[in-house]
Amino acid sequence: MENTSIINGRRIASDRIAELGENEIFVFGSNIHGAHGGGAARYAHQKFGAEWGVGEGLTGHTYALPTMEGDASLKQAVEHFIACAKAHPELTFLVTAVGCGIAGYTPDEVAPLFREAAPLENVYLPRVFWEVL
User: Fold this and answer.
1) DSSP collapsed to 3 states, the chain
2) Predicted local distance difference test score (pLDDT) of residue 32
3) What pTM did the predictor assign?
4) pLDDT attached to residue 1
C-alpha cells in the first residue's frame, strides 16, 4: 500500500503506514516527556526509530508532536513542526491524525492548526484533516 496519494490537489497521508521510504517521516502525537507507550507513539518508537525521552522533533524516521499538554502547547508544537517542514524540503512528512486518539481532540479542533502546512509540497495530511480544511 502506498503511504501517500493526491486527490483533487490534496496530499493525503495513508491511515496505515507499515514501512517508510528513505526520506519519509512519520509524524505522530506524543507527550512532552517522550514516553511513547501507546497508540501511534508506541508504533513510531517500535517501528520507525522515535527515541524514548524525546517528546518533540525529529528522531529516526519520525517527528514527535506533544499533544497532551493543552491547546496552547499543541498550537506552538504544530508551528515548530511547520517550520521544520519548511526547513527540510528534502523530507516528506506523513502526518497522522495527531491529537485525535489518546489526547482526546477532534479533527475539527486539530486540523485548523495545520492550515499553514496544507500548501507545503512535502507535507501529507490525514484525510480527516482535509475534510475539515
Assistant:
1) CCCEEEECCEEEECCCCCCCCCCEEEEEEECCCCCCCCHHHHHHHHHHCCCCCCCCEEECCEEEEECCCCHHHHHHHHHHHHHHHHHCCCCEEEECCCCCCCCCCCHHHHHHHHCCCCCCCCEEEEHHHHHHC
2) 92
3) 0.94
4) 55
